[in-house]
């Protein structure tokens, strides 16, 4: 029994093939423009305010929506729903369990995963969005439930717009695979 358990860890398939230089270049360009659009919007429109538009989980979203565009986890429903749902969950859990940060962090991420599964919006960076709601600084905590919509939802929406524009420029790329 123990042998079978460890045998599972060997894997079942080979590593996927390398992607072409052209695919790498399109992924790079998309990620650069997507993050630049969110970061520029943050610095241009929100400088001097208590609002924020860019969060760390957008880096992971960029990997998916520009580097793995066919993945179900990279589609618009998952990108937007995953960030918004996880933001709401992270804020709620933080507000209830903030005296126990370790517990709030674990509950926020685990609950976000469960709810994303249940709503068909699984987007791995959503776990980070929930975690940021818990471990973020005063600027994040001050936003309360607004955090789910600004920065999480609106930043993801900006990145989605860039993904739609850039990913469809190349003849061999098509995004999205599905909307809902």
Structure description:
The protein is built from eight helices and no strands. By secondary structure, it is mainly α. Helix 2 packs antiparallel against helix 8. It has helices at 2-7, 21-45, 57-67, 76-97, 101-118, 125-135, 138-143, 149-167. The chain has one domain.
Task: Describe the protein's topology.
Elements: H1 2-7, H2 21-45, H3 57-67, H4 76-97, H5 101-118, H6 125-135, H7 138-143, H8 149-167
Keywords:
180 residues; 8 helices; 0% strand; 66% helix; mainly alpha; flat; single chain
In short:
It contains eight helices and no strands. By secondary structure, the chain is an all-alpha fold. The radius of gyration is 18 Å and the shape is flat.
Shape from CA axes? flat
Largest sheet: none
Please report the number of helical segments.
Answer: 8
Number of domains: 1
Distance between the termini: 42 Å
* Alpha-beta classification: mainly alpha
List the uncertain runs: none
Strand content: under 5%
What's the mean pLDDT score? 96
> What is the total tally of β strands?
0
Q: Helix amount, in percent? A: 55-70%
Q: H/E order of the elements? A: HHHHHHHH
Q: Roughly how many Å is the radius of gyration?
A: 18 Å
């Amino acid at each position: 029994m123990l042998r079978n358990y460890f045998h599972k860890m060997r894997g079942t398939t080979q590593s996927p093939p390398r992607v072409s230089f052209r695919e790498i270049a399109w992924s790079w360009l998309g990620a650069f423009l997507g993050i630049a659009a969110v970061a520029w919007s943050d610095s241009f429109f929100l400088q001097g305010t208590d609002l924020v538009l860019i969060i760390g989980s957008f880096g992971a979203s960029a990997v998916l929506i520009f580097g793995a565009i066919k993945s179900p986890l990279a589609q618009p429903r998952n990108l937007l729903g995953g960030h918004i749902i996880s933001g709401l969950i992270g804020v709620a859990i933080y507000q209830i369990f903030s005296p126990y940060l370790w517990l709030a962090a674990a509950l926020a991420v685990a609950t976000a995963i469960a709810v994303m599964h249940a709503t068909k919006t699984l987007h791995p960076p959503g776990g980070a969005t929930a975690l940021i709601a818990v471990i973020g600084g005063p600027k994040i905590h001050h936003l309360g439930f607004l955090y789910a919509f600004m920065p999480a939802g609106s930043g993801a929406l900006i990145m989605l717009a860039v993904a739609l524009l850039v990913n469809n420029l190349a003849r061999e790329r098509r995004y999205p695979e599905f909307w809902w």
